[in-house]
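Appendix C reproduces, verbatim, an entry submitted by the partner laboratory led by Prof. M.T., so that reviewers can inspect both the input and the predicted structure.
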Amino acid sequence: MIVFTELTKLTVPRLWKQRSDFFSADAVNLGGVKIDSAGVAFLVRWTKSLKKGRKLKLINADEDLLKLISVFKIADLFDCEQR
């Protein structure tokens, strides 16, 4: 499982260069992670990179992220789990 501290417009460009290290995983722990729309876009690309029929599991996503996912109408791309 992958863990980040921040997925924002400031960190996503650096993480994008390392995406092959992350995109093989199918779960990410987002507890306490600061996320903006650039981070959401990163998560969308990640889930779309998984094998067909698989969804990225977002573990401990906070209410703000869940609201963004709802507003962008992309909830069906992810499995969300609270631990």
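Helices lie at 12-17, 19-22, 37-49, 63-71. Additional entries are available on request from the coordinating office.
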